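Lab notebook page, bench 4
Experiment: in silico fold of construct C2
Operator: M.H.
Input chain length: 322 residues
Purpose: comparison with the prior construct
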Amino acid sequence: MLLRSLPDLAQSNAEFQSWFQSKWGRENCILWGRARQAEFGPCTHTLSIRAAWGGVEHCYVNGRTLAVDDDNFLILNHGQIYSTSIRSVQPVETLAICFKPELAEQIYSEASASIEQALARGDVPAERTPGFMENLHPHDNAVSPVLRFIRAHASRGIADDSWYDEQLVFLLARMQSHHQRLLEQVDRIALIRPTTRREVYRRIALATDFLHSNYSQDVDLSTLAKMAYLSKYHFLRLFTLVHGVTPRTYLQRKRIGVAIRLLESTRMTMSEVSASVGFAEESTLVRQMRRWTQLTPRQVRARVTHGHATGAPDCSVNQALA
């Protein structure tokens, strides 16, 4: 099933609702569209992956609010109940892919078998599970290109179900590869016990997702530590151990990455951009942008105006995780 407009079951007619429900949760589903205002759910999803460009789509799951934007994608496991919403002045482009149950079950079954074999050899810690890690993932060179490829074809009106099914199998393989690399990254955390590494990563991921979703607010160390269920001292040490930078540096890079996108894609004033990303004063935006890009906000906008690439380093959250 491919939809190029976001479904609104509350306002749709009975015929559409019947057609949608006959396919939802049974087939591969691709939802693509642009909207300023949209709501979907809550409902039970199959294994899914979501991405958004040009703004923020909020996902509400397990009492958490996750902001999917240009910096990241979100994977949620089969059977999760969640809802999403878009509230934006500018149109937000969203892509949601839900895999049919047979694909999800095959992936989980293969992963479980692989883990059992590895355990028998003593290669992996016993706490590993076949499910994906349910947190915001920075765009990468494996999953993200496939998402952009599918997005481009959906936006051009390609409607070949067989082609999309092939792409989703390829996407799922990339997601598995991404997950394996992430597990290997967790294993390299400089902690003695393997079970401790996995739990530390899970807690730091909770705080990192909160930072992504609330970067425009006054996000302080105490709040982030609370989200991770850690003391401030242990949180600061473990966050830096996982990400290689302090929470403050991570936050500033996130803000600058968003500020660059706003300068490039909107007509917002410097003061408006500063306030939107969480800087109290325009001078702070100028200072931080110079620090991370060697450019001023006016230079970033001027390059776009004159039709040139910014040439600035990638100051998105991807760089913060490097």
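Observations: Residues 192 and 198 are 11 Å apart (CA to CA). The chain has two domains: 1-188, 248-320.
Next step: discuss at group meeting.
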